[in-house]
């Protein structure tokens, strides 16, 4: 089996090569600019401290401050997507990492958002996997088999919790009635599963994710197929623009998981429409030119940003400053 470090190194090398191939001389042009770039403090809302959003956010912050010395980026750890959009809405954050599906709900003003929230995208940064796992000693083979069991769906303010409740309903289950739902910090999940107070967990993140790797060793996990529920998750406007798609969990990510058909959801870096264009330009150039440096150590799949797919932000329009930067870089 390919070693995680080797796969991560190969991914970073591929991203760097792709940037050079797609952009040609843009790397040299960017390095030679005399403009010192934007200044000020940016607040970036990410996710739980041990999760993928936070890891990506810290890498983005470090690269941003190195490339633009007059900018400071504060990484805010949060409950993730829903909480992040609320922080943007209330002007307590300037940037946020969110699931595309959650961003669409915010823009439309649908559950869990009572009113539309104006958002703009800097880019589509990576795709995460819905990983629904149960203890291997349970006779559960599908989501519909979870009647009477206790499920962890993530933190209460996360997009994963919202999407998880929709998954349960798509499988014909009523959260809180057919299935007991718990919302705990990710740091408490492993203990709860081993103690038996939680029997199934839904994680939305990169593959593999440390908490599931740990539980896969003890007590052992079985991953449930989710792709069959995809047609029921589109909401009133269907799947277009939701960022949801059928994917397979990579071979070797966990024991016996290869080929399980699940759901992938893209993730966006978003902002309010009033973010200065100079900042949006700087962020966009960073995503394109420093892609290889933005892959967290524990994420070794191919689910990270591709310089060719950054503009695929679904129903969330790109910020005008990002549009100008993409045009400048791509010619």
Automatic annotation (TrEMBL):
PROSITE patterns: TAT
InterPro entries, alphabetized: TAT_signal, TRAP_TAXI
NCBIfam families: TRAP_TAXI
Protein's UniProt name: TAXI family TRAP transporter solute-binding subunit
Organism this protein belongs to: Streptomyces lutosisoli
Lineage of origin: Bacteria, Bacillati, Actinomycetota, Actinomycetes, Kitasatosporales
């Amino acid at each position: 089996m390919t070693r995680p470090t080797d796969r991560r190194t190969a991914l970073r090398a591929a991203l760097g090569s792709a940037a050079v191939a797609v952009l040609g001389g843009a790397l040299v042009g960017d390095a030679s600019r005399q403009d010192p770039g934007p200044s000020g403090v940016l607040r970036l809302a990410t996710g739980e401290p041990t999760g993928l959003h936070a890891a990506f956010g810290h890498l983005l912050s470090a690269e941003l401050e190195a490339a633009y010395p007059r900018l400071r980026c504060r990484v805010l750890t949060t409950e993730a997507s829903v909480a992040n959009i609320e922080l943007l809405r209330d002007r307590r954050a300037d940037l946020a990492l969110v699931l595309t599906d959650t961003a669409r709900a915010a823009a439309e003003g649908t559950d869990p958002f009572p009113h539309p929230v104006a958002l703009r995208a800097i880019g589509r940064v990576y795709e995460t996997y819905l990983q629904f796992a149960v203890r291997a000693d349970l006779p559960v083979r599908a989501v519909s088999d979870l009647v009477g069991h206790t499920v962890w769906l993530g933190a209460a303010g996360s997009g994963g919790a919202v999407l998880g409740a929709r998954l349960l309903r798509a499988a014909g289950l009523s959260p809180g009635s057919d299935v007991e739902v718990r919302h705990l910090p990710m740091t408490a999940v492993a203990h709860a599963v081993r103690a038996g107070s939680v029997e199934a967990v839904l994680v939305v993140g990169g593959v593999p994710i440390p908490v599931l790797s740990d539980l896969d060793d003890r007590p052992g996990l079985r991953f449930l197929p989710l792709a069959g529920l995809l047609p029921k998750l589109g909401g009133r406007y269907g799947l277009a623009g939701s960022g949801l798609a059928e994917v397979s969990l990579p071979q070797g990510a966990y024991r016996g998981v290869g080929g399980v058909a699940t759901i992938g959801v893209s993730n966006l870096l978003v902002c309010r429409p009033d973010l200065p264009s100079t900042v949006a330009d700087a962020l966009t150039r960073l995503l394109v030119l420093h892609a290889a440096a933005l892959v967290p150590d524990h994420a070794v799949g191919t689910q990270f940003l591709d310089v060719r797919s950054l503009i695929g932000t679904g129903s969330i329009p790109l910020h005008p400053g990002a549009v100008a930067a993409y045009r400048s870089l791509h010619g």
